Amino acid sequence: MTENNNRNGEVWVFAEQEEGVLADVPRELLGKGRELADRLGVKLAAVLMGDGVESLASGLFEAGADVVHLADDPALKTFRGVAYRKAFVKMVRECRPQIAIFGATHMGRDLAPAVASELRCGLTADCTDLQIGDWTDQKRKDASGNGTVVKDVLLQIRPAFGGNIIATIVNPYNWPQMATVREGVMKKLDPRPGAKGEIVRHDAGLGGEDLPVEVVEIVRRHSSVNLKGARIIVAGGAGVGSQENFKLLHELADALGGAVGGSRAAVDLGYCEHERQIGQTGVTVRPALFISCGISGAVQHLAGMQDSAKIVAINTDRDAPIFKVAHYGIVGDLNIVVPKLIKAVKKGW
Fold first, then answer.
1. Domain 11-210 class in CATH
2. What is the pLDDT of residues 147-163, one digit of tens each?
3. Are the C-beta atoms of 62 and 27 separated by less than 8 Å?
């Protein structure tokens, strides 16, 4: 086993951008990255790749980065896995960060495993939390016969076995320690207007053989659902009973000026579209008001909504787990309760 740990290495966040527009997830990850870097006493850096994207560095400094590692090359204009992997790996070998974090987006889920594979280091996918702590290696004994304690490693925390347990995964050897983090899980820092930092420019080192695919056209289908940006969400589960009954939730959401979401069970039953799914395998949301209708509260769903500012739960089962996280609970039939709520909202009660 080759160990290449750099205890003074930076904490890196992949600054995902597309067509010169910075995604939301790097700002979220920089918030957590700031915490990790301060705990380790090292710099927080963002890795920015693209063509003509240097102007995005100011937004990354305002979001918490001390350093921006910039690979600006026409070959990086559009995301191509081979090119981005080679450029990222080259920067890692030059700078030797100790932690590298990616968003669990389509781009991050493509790039991070490819980088980890080439660097022969570990990667934990879809983390819901990251912490710094100590870990005891029971296979490596010290002079007293006790396990060797490895100080200040990245504790990569995520649900496992269908969400039935929370696993803590460590990669004490063969750094960088790498993880992907789901969108919406980490909180952004308050912006620091006018913040400055250091830009480190890198040669992407790409040749023609690194671009085996030519991007001819990019076609996008924009979603009409924006759950992450909604301040009010009305969500339904299997207890709603049918796709027809889901219309009640849409009516309540319209009256409140909110959006409609669903649990995985509701999506699997065809009651609502997959893009509305909230939870471990959907989106993570933090609205000002979350109204749960007919959702039992499985841990996979709770992982995606339990940080909402106010949670109102409606369920016929008074022992449903959803009531443990709800601020207000209504034990009753949603087909009776929801129409009354709609009437009250429309009357301005």
1. alpha beta
2. 888 899 999 998 776 66
3. no
